[in-house]
Amino acid sequence: MVQDANQNTLRSREFALNYLNLIYEKSFRDLNLSNLDRLFSIAKTYKIQKIFDPSEYISKLDVVPVSLAIAQAAVESGWGKSRFAKEANNLYGHWTWGGKGLVPLNRDENKTHKIKIFNSPNDAVDAYVLNLNSHPAYAKFRENRLKFHQNEFIYTGLDAAKTMESYSAMGKIYVKQLEKTIRLYDLTKFDRI
């Protein structure tokens, strides 16, 4: 599932970069409008600020380490045994303030968030990958990943876990929990696939 989400991200990246190259080679008048609409859609989805700047697509449309995704799903969903995983296909603790969601059992009275309901675990993984690739809270994750890839190093879940402090209210304890899970189950082997 994570590899599929990563491949979809890379396909969008490839399209965006190829289309941007085409834009620079031709004038805007000669371009296919449906492709331009697709570029705008990708930019909106990934919260790209400079629509015609390739560097932002390179930074935001990239893979999430599989070991990190597995560890976070395990920690957030209790290895798939949590109520949220079973009733909402929610593997990563995503919240919503919209209509469709599960109310947490111990939610404070003054809170209004719900746990987002996904149609499938695949949808939850897709949302997770998009979240790490687009939310401002994970800018350091993307910055570090870009540096690793520019130096042709594999960005493992252990490397990425260090940037996940803001993913959970547990902060540094959460990071340690992710690192422990990745090491205990030797999950970095999935980052090399």
Description:
Helix 1 crosses helix 2, helix 1 packs across helix 6 and helix 4 crosses helix 9. The radius of gyration is 18 Å and the shape is globular. It has a domain of 102 residues: Orthogonal Bundle (Lysozyme), CATH 1.10.530.10. The two termini are 13 Å apart. The chain is mostly helical. It contains nine helices and three strands; from the N terminus they run αααααβββαααα. The mean pLDDT is 94. This is Mannosyl-glycoprotein endo-beta-N-acetylglucosamidase. Pfam families: Glucosaminidase (PF01832). InterPro entries: Bax-like (IPR053195), MGlyc_endo_b_GlcNAc-like_dom (IPR002901). One of its GO terms (molecular function) is amidase activity.
Q: What is this entry, summarized?
A:
This is Mannosyl-glycoprotein endo-beta-N-acetylglucosamidase. By secondary structure, the chain is mainly alpha-helical. It has helices at residues 2-25, 33-45, 54-60, 66-77, 83-88, 121-134, 139-150, 157-161, 172-184, and strands at 95-96, 101-102, 114-116.
Write the layout of secondary structure elements.
Elements: H1 2-25, H2 33-45, H3 54-60, H4 66-77, H5 83-88, E1 95-96, E2 101-102, E3 114-116, H6 121-134, H7 139-150, H8 157-161, H9 172-184
Antiparallel strand pairs: 1-3, 2-3
Helix pairs in contact: 1-2, 1-6, 4-9
